[in-house]
Amino acid sequence: MTAPTVAEIVTFRLKEGCDPSEFARAAEAMTPFLRSTGAMISRTLSADADGLWTEFITWTSEGAAKSAAEAMFARPEAGPFMAMIDQSDMSMRHAAISLYLPPEDHAPH
Length: 109
Prior knowledge:
globular
């Protein structure tokens, strides 16, 4: 596996009345597209107790991350996902990865 070089960190809140479980399903529906870019290494979506969501995606390069973000808006499966996000309270940034620890093998030895 290629080691990621950049992290994409997006924080946001859902629009009032949106179901978090429904949002998680809409987010999961984006995964085939993200994988099809060939540049996504990993993806994590989380929400804290105050309703602040964080999506953390590792990419092979910042250019690949930005290209995927631009292409995403043309994808039909992005509609339900983006419609539930409160765009007025969203922040996206990219950061160079200084340390990457891949998952350990937890198989019995």
